[in-house]
Amino acid sequence: MERVLDNFILPDKSLHCVAPRRKCDKIANRSWVGIVYKENDLTQPPPPLQDHLMKSSIFSIGILLVCLCSGGADAVAKQPNILFIFSDDHAPQAIGAYGSKINQTPNLDRIAKEGAVFRHSFCANSICGPSRACILTGKHSYLNGFLRNSDRFDGSQTTFPKLLQQVGYQTAIIGKWHLTTDPVGFDHWEILPGQGSYYNPDFIQMDRTRKAYPGYVTDIITDRALQWLKEQRDPDKPFVLMCQHKAPHRNWSPPSRYFSLYKGVDIPEPDTLFDDYSGRSELLKQNEMTLKDHFFWGWDAKQKGENPFPKYFASGLANGEYRRMNSEQKAQWDAAYEPENQAFIERMKAGELSDKDVLRWKYQRYIKDYLRCIQAVDDSVGSVLDYLDESKLADDTIVIYSSDQGFYLGEHGWYDKRWMFEESLKMPFLIRWPGVVEPGIESTAMIQNIDYAPTFLEVAGAPVPEEIQGRSLVPILKNKGKATDDWRDAIYYAYYENGASHNVPIHDGIRTERYKLMFFPRNREWNLFDLKKDPKELKSVHQDLAYSETFSGLKRQYHKIHQLYQVNTAAIPASRLDVPHWRARDAAITQKARKGNFDLAFIGDSITQGWEGAGDAIWKEFYADRHAINLGISGDRTEHVIWRLQHGNLGKMQPKVAVVMIGTNNTGHLQQDPTEVAAGVKRILDLLRESRPDTKVLLLGIFPRGKNPSDVLRKNNNEINNEIKRYADGKHIHYMDIGSIFLEADGTISDEVMPDYLHLSKEGYARWAKAIEPKLQALGVEPSVHAASPQ
Ligand code: SGN
Ligand code: CA
């Protein structure tokens, strides 16, 4: 059995400087840029973004001056062009160069043949917008702020196109963008709205007007990109052109020229098409992305009319692409699809097809459409490569092909992506760089989409900001694809959507050469895969004793990588919309908060919610007549409160005082590092300050838990309290640690105060109310007129 080394090589040399000194030196020594960059001081904390932006502009002015003073044209000419061809959902297993068994992609393969193919290329978050945000910023989702497709990209942050502009590049993006806000840092852009459409698509123009183009989206994006190269490119400048396709995204609508491709042919099925999800996380079974149960009659199967087979097909999503077609397009479509559709319906009606046959039919319909879309992408690549040859740009242009993530092509019975299994974790990465990358290179270095930005910056001779987490691939590209000695030996992955499309839970994990470790916070479950013995990831071995050492080593590695990338789940907003009781309570208390005017709000978890349970009588006694509201939800951690505060949980109220007590579940569920939990609490305080500047916060130390003072969870809470007490400023934030009122003289907790040594009894609530009463009044909450309430 192989041991996992504890002293794995950190992907980056320090938390703050992603660029190892050597790399910084290398950039500094490029004579044509002629600027000596100050070395990163690895002992210093990262500069605030503002500082960084200022530094960048100083750099850019410097670079400009150097270029101007030294007859810049020559120097700038050495900066290669970058043509970044990108598609949506194109899995490597559908590319010839990656050994596809199901299709041929001669033009994509040409990039690989004349350049390099990276076999261990991974995304950081397997979903569209987030992957793009990682690429633009060189940072993991948590740091770039675009965690889910529903987020808005903050275009004011540092991105590689902006930095390339500063070193003289002309920048353009044409095609799918999907980051909600307008592109920033591009001299030219023309983008699809949201997901865009396959047929007769609209494009948003730089003046925000929409323009509809007749035809098929992949061809239109290609034409627009070629037109930009031919007519709008400034020949005196190097360029970066991002040509970003919609295809082969769902609903996999092909162009008419490929309607007949694969007709009469059966595409080989993946071995795991009939996966039963046993032997892995329980959550797997709850997915909603199977060909079996989640394949829509209209949208996915491209059938028309009412769904006659609700047992086999999902209903309610018609083929919207068909509706967009003109009559000629519809006629071609019908001629291609309807005979097959009708034949299928007849066989179904005749009872000729078993359940498995139906699944097989769906797979063939799905995969053929998907591959037909890819064929058009391959054509597009061919046209662009041809143009580079014709225009003699090929030698000066780096060409990259990639896609925002991988995709399940029937593996595990799925379409879609999101889960951290190989098929969606992997992204294609093909690169041709004449004169630098030797033709035909195969690399197994573990690379990620956060590496693209620093790579582009290095090839352009631009400084790589310290805040970038990825690493430049240039040393690997120059080293025949071999990872350098100090290269990372694990990549980090995190997926943040929850209760959203396809019901894939939040999870994160690491992948090393041989293993993959995943963590699912929803049920606090680990999964561990030995990719050497189980490349199809069919059995988690986290409970297998033979792997116990490996498992603990990987867990250590997982925690280290969290530290390295400053990933702190306690401060990343997360909902629990997948939990019905949570959804209901969140909605109910938000509704209440919207309607009422409250002076006093209690914010927290089950201990706060318990004011409506064991604490009910005490609440009535102390707070019933004082405009108080209970915003506690059982099971919440700091990240859930953060989410609630960002999603209207306070309604319109401006309470005089908010009592905040949160974090014991970060301890209990995850034994989370105290500094991480404290950062989560800090985020809550900041959100309260931003949104309710006049509200005073009474921050309570997390209550003690566990019977004995030696309880590890109690100790964790104490450590958190040591951190959070520092947030009190005596003005807006007031801190009280009332933990001792729940303790016996010897430090133990009696079950009369906390029956389960975590939640309070009536007596516990009485002690809590009494302890904070003077402070509440001091902070401006009117005393109760209720006779029993202490004044
Ligand atoms: C749409 C798709 C989903 C897909 C997401 C995200 N549904 O919602 O299947 O997972 O996009 O895709 S569809 O009915 O609109 O086709 S992503 O690539 O944009 O992230
Ligand atoms: Ca995608």
CATH homolog superfamily of the domain at 580-778:
SGNH hydrolase
CATH architecture of the domain at 580-778: 3-Layer(aba) Sandwich
CATH class of the domain at 580-778, named Alpha Beta
**Might you state the CATH topology name of the domain at 580-778?**
Rossmann fold
Strand content: 5-15%
* Strand arrangement, major sheet: 5-4-8-1-9-10-2-11
Bound molecules: 2-deoxy-6-O-sulfo-2-(sulfoamino)-alpha-D-glucopyranose, calcium ion
Q: What would the principal axes of the Cα set say about the shape?
A: globular
Fraction of residues in helices?
25-40%
Q: Multimeric state of these chains? A: single chain
- Quickly give the structural class: alpha/beta
* Alpha plus pi helix count: 23
Largest sheet: 8 strands, mixed
Stretches with pLDDT under 50, minimum 5 residues: 1-77
Cα radius of gyration in angstroms = 29 Å
Number of distinct beta strands: 21
Average pLDDT across residues? 90
Distance between the termini: 68 Å
Family: Belongs to the sulfatase family.
Domain N-sulphoglucosamine sulphohydrolase C-terminal: 410-561
EC number: 3.1.6.1
InterPro entries: Alkaline_phosphatase_core_sf (IPR017850), SGNH_hydro (IPR013830), SGNH_hydro_sf (IPR036514), SGSH_C (IPR032506), Sulfatase_CS (IPR024607)
Task: Write a concise synopsis of the structure shown.
Helices cover 34% and strands 12% of the residues. By secondary structure, the chain is of the alpha/beta class. The relative contact order is 0.11.
